[in-house]
Amino acid sequence: MFPITSRCLPVLVVMALFSPARAVAQPAPPANTCLTCHAALTDTRLATPARLFSGTDVHRERGFACIDCHGGDPAAGDKARAHDAARGFKGAPSGQAQIATCARCHSDATLMRRFAPKQRVDQAAEYATSVHGKQLAAGHRDVATCASCHGPHGIRLVSDAKSPVFPTNVAATCATCHADPRHMAEYKLANGTAIPTTQFADYQKSVHYAALTKGNDLSAPTCNDCHGNHGATPPGVGAVANVCGTCHAVFATKFQMSVHSQIFDKGCVECHSNHAVLKPSDDMLGSSGSAVCAACHGGADDKGALAADRMRSGIEGLKAGINRSGALIAKVRDAGIEVSDQELALVEVRSRLTLARTEMHTGNPEGVEAILGEGTTILAGIDRAGQAGVVELRFRRRGLAISLGAILLLVVALWLKVRQLDRRSHR
Amino acid sequence: MALQQIVDWLDERIDLSGIRHFIAEKGVPIHTQEVWYYLGGMTMFLFAVQVFTGILLLLYYRPSAAEAYESVQFIVTQVEFGWLIRNVHSWSANLLIALAFAHFFSVFFLKSYRKPRELTWLTGIVLLFLMLGFGFSGYLLPWNELSFFATKVGTGIAGAVPVVGPFTLRLLRGGDDVTGATLSRFYGLHVAILPAITTALVVAHLLLVQRQGMSVPLSIEHRRKAGEPLPQMPFFPNYILRDVLAWYVVLALVAALAAFYPWELGKKADPFAVVPPGIRPEWYFLAMFHTLKLVPSHVLGFEGERLGVVAFGLIAVFLVLVPFLDRRASRGERSPVFTVLAALGLVYLIVFTIIGHYAK
Amino acid sequence: MLRTMSNQNRVPTMAGAAPAEFNRRVFLDALLAVGFVSTAVAIAYPVTRFMIPPASGEPATASAGAGRAATLKPNSARIFKFGSRPGIVVRTADGDVRAFSAVCTHLECTVQFKLDTAQLWCACHNGTYDLGGNVVSGPPPRALEQFVVNLRGEPGDEEIVVSRS
Predict the structure, then answer these.
(1) CA-CA distance, A408 to B73, in Å (whole number)?
(2) Fold classified for C63-163
(3) What is the pLDDT at residue C60?
(4) Cβ contacts (< 8 Å) between C109 and chain A: which residues?
(5) B-contacting residues in C 71-110 (Cβ below 8 Å)
(6) I need a labelling partner for A377 at 20 to 30 A (CA). Which of A75, A142, A337, B164 fits?
(7) pLDDT at res. B61
């Protein structure tokens, strides 16, 4: 009988009395005194890992135990023997040691094939290329490592909605460090300025965040979609348009045709911002006021300003035309003329507007005007039909006037008859 | 002459002597206030127009959430003169309610409700409420955005009545929300239940009026010398022709409005859409609606809206009981209190309808 | 009117004034008759026309025609009008006929059939749908609304009829 410390004994007795019966087919699990001791500790820093690991944990569910990462003796009943370095006890690994601990399995293709054949095995290599990895290699201890994002214990699959790296949770996970000015204070950008901490707040204003959280669109981008998962680095010069273009393909193609793709360092971000990507509006186009183009273009002889103004006025003109024609058709329809063909055509004109806004990214007014011209032609047809409806309405009013004439005649006749009858009854 | 032959043929079989006597003898008093007599008949005429155009619309309308809007659009754009029938129905509905209120107020001011005409007043008040019910139920039938949300708000207010509120709300809506079930229910109300009750009451109302003759205002009664009867005109043909004349004028007005100011259809109702800002009911509910909006959310510990609804309920009960409460008029005496009440009611309705219309 | 008219018929003519009065009365009665008849016609005409069923049958948004089946070749599609919105009817390579709303669920541009990939594609922002209407790639948030297709008429010369449900 090996000596048992007074702390573990009551726990063991209780566990023996109340442990549920296991399924018959499974072999008895190996002894794991790590959990039993640590779960009973009052220091939460030591008890929490045991609690988490005992709950939903992807490693525990596949048969891994504490010793697989921490080493030590799981059958030992006392701390000294359990924590014996001679038995491989490593303590809580951090920094490069932590990366190595995870990579021991996760970079081993043969091993990973046994558990998750399709999962990648290059995360550690990617990590080394990331800003986090490089800073870690340079000696900064405070950077993100595997456990920072995935958690050290209670690790869930990425597809589990409660995982810190599930798409809707990623931004908040990154923000635990990146939105904390004190944490980020020791790190600087390449040019020596402080790293901003407003990204999460900005991202929450964006249409991407709205699509992800409210629109239930899990394909909407969050931090890792543009910055990479393990190789997290902001996209460099010339790469931004490609990154945005993975989803916004048409716009990226159009933008490549424009002169701005050669000039902008930050590509799409120059006009649309990187994190606070808001819903774009036509007001962004132009050479004055709140227009984005006005940041660089202005003045009567600036070719860019002229092009922007041309495109903007063309788009506004088509919008105004759609409103006018729409109102005419609605008025005529409510008065009773059949206009479903015209409504169908109006749908086509609206899609011309959408296409024009896409074409605008080439920076070439001619292309935009060609599309707007198609829309205007269709509108002309709609207006013709609308006017024909108005003519029909006038025809109806003439018919009504005739009916009213008949009624008026009758009213006059009645009035005269009443007077006549009154005279007769008074006689 | 041919007409006379037909009459004689019928007389041989079903004895028209009662009718002949009635036609020959019935008279209508002539005095300065006789113009008000025509309002009731005009209201009835417009109700007949509603029944007629309503039946025509029934030939094409489809009372389901999926098809109602489209069927109305179909009537207005594809069916010959569909625009005319639909617009006559919509305009005549509004004029009907306006005339019903005018008739109500004229009776209220002239105290025609006094003994022996209490029953006529009772049937009339219920008819007025029925007309409002027609308006409310019919408004939903095109299933467009405005009517959907107006119904949502209106039935919500009905739900604020204490005790019976939630039950009434579920009864009206056919469920907890305004859905296709509500549409079916309102359709049944609008084309079957309300018309049946209204017909019965209109017949009763008319029979009473014919039996008791036209009421003469107290001021006229007092002015003429005792024992001397008022001059009368024969109901048939003098009064009837005047009635018919008034009806044709109203018809001309409705036709003109239908052609020059067509009713819009708007967008199809989308239950998941956001309530459009500034949603409000039709003008005949506007005064009540705006009053409820102005009541503070809590008054003396009671929910404001609830208090408001109860207050309106009490006003309705008061109106029903007016002939029994106005003792002075029943005795044939002047009753200035009720005249003032009527004036206050009229002013309140007009002022609050205007305010409600221009409020944001 | 009956009583008074029959009374009037028996009133003996009064010297002098009667014939003129009689003419005026006859004229007035004639005018009344014309008035009643013309207003009755002005009401009866539109009411009768209203009741005659219109050519288009019933509200078009319940169902619509999409052309002859024979002219729709396998692996092709065509746009048709469904109420006031465009629809697209597709014949797959296997010969199956399907119909969808052609309104892209992203920003309502009209989708088209792409021959090389046998998919439905929206030119505005590159949204792609498969031939079940489901989104394959791009910005559309929802699948295309699918309609029910029926073939109606003589075999070999059927018309494609598309309806909502």
Answers:
(1) 32
(2) Rieske Iron-sulfur Protein (2.102.10)
(3) 64
(4) 350-351, 354-355
(5) 83
(6) A337
(7) 95
Residue in A131, A228, A229, A236 with CA at minimum distance from that of residue A187: A131
CATH class of the domain defined by B36-268+278-358: mainly alpha
Rounded-to-integer distance, Cα B67 and Cα B268, Å: 10
* Residue carrying the six token digits 């859905």: B179
Nearest CA to CA, how far is C75 from chain B (Å)?
Answer: 33
Q: Residue B91: pLDDT band by 50, 70, 90 thresholds?
A: very high
Provide the residue type at B254 as one letter: V
CB contact under 8 A, B233 and A330: no
User: In this complex, do A420 and C103 lie within 8 Å of one another by their Cβ atoms?
Assistant: no
Which 3 state secondary structure label does DSSP give B49?
Answer: helix
* Contact between residue B160 and residue B304 where contact means Cβ atoms under 8 Å apart: no
Q: A414 in contact with C at a CB cutoff of 8 Å?
A: yes
Domain definitions of chain B by residue range: 36-268+278-358
CA atoms within 13 A on the CB side of A95: 8
**pLDDT higher at C2 or B296:** B296
Yes or no, beta carbons of A418 and B241 under 8 Å apart = yes
- DSSP class per residue in B159-226: TTSTTTHHHHHHHHHTSSS-SHHHHHHHHHIIIIIHHHHHHHHHHHHHHHHHHH-----HHHHHHSPT
pLDDT above 80 (res B293):
yes
Residues A160-169 have a mean pLDDT of 92
Question: Which residues of B lie inside 8 Å of C (Cβ-Cβ)?
Answer: 3-4, 7, 20, 23-24, 56, 59, 62, 66-67, 70-71, 73-74, 78-82, 84-85, 234, 236-237, 248
Q: Please return the burial class of A192, using the count of CB atoms within 10 Å of its CB with bins 0-12, 13-18 and 19+.
A: exposed
Residue B78's alpha-carbon distances to A147, A251, A338, B86, C58, in angstroms, are: 69, 43, 6, 12, 9
- The b-or-e profile of B10-41 (16+ CB within 10 A means b, else e) is eeeeeeeeeeeeebeebbbbebeebebbbbbb
pLDDT band at A350 (very low <50, low <70, confident <90, very high): very high
Hunting for tokens 């808001």 — which residue is that?
A278
Contact between A416 and C31 under an 8 Å Cβ cutoff? The reply is yes
pLDDT digits (tens, 9 = 90+) for B186-198: 999 999 999 999 9
In terms of average pLDDT, the best of A27-31, A38-42, B104-108 is: B104-108
Task: Identify the CA nearest to B212 among candidates B359, B55, B26.
Answer: B26
What is the structure's pLDDT at C6? 43
DSSP A194: B
Half-sphere CA count of B240, side-chain side, radius 13 A = 11
pLDDT tens for each residue of A47-93: 899 899 988 999 999 989 888 888 888 888 788 888 888 888 888 88
Task: For residues B135-144, give the mean pLDDT.
Answer: 95
Facing A418 at nearest CB: one of B84, B238, B260: B238
pLDDT band at B280 (very low <50, low <70, confident <90, very high): confident
What are the boundaries of each domain within chain A?
1-91, 93-195, 304-393
Q: Which of helix, strand or coil describes residue C130?
A: coil
Distance CA A16, CA B29 (A): 107
The residue that leads in pLDDT, B72 or A73, is: B72
ipTM for the predicted complex: 0.83
Integer-rounded Cα Rg, in Å, for chain B is 23
Token pair in block for residue A39:
């779960």
Judged by DSSP in three states, B261 sits in coil
B264·A330 Cβ contact <8 A: yes
Buried b (16+ CB within 10 A) or exposed e, B306-320: bbbbeeeeeeeeebe
Q: Which amino acid is at B326?
A: D
pLDDT band at C3 (very low <50, low <70, confident <90, very high): very low
Indicate if the pLDDT at residue A236 is higher than 90: no
